[in-house]
Amino acid sequence: MLQLRPNCEVCDRNLPPDSSDARMCSFECTFCADCADGALKGACPNCGGNLERRPVRPAAALVKYPASTERVLRKRA
After folding, report:
1. pTM for the full predicted model
2. Torsion angle of C-alpha atoms 44, 29, 36, 72, degrees rounded to 10
3. 21 lies in some domain
4. 47 has pLDDT over 80
């Protein structure tokens, strides 16, 4: 089950579960579309994998399988 993390790891922008602007890699690192397509150039800075649009979990399924509330931020160099 995907965690559906609530924020971009770079800019901390809110990414609700129904956001079409969320991008993620196969390890569920999560970024907003602006960071993913801009500075990150479509590649995860953590693992090097490609960033794809995160699927949207239907609202009815969120009741039983809620999105994560844990915010993750990438450490700045």
Report:
1. 0.91
2. -120
3. yes
4. yes
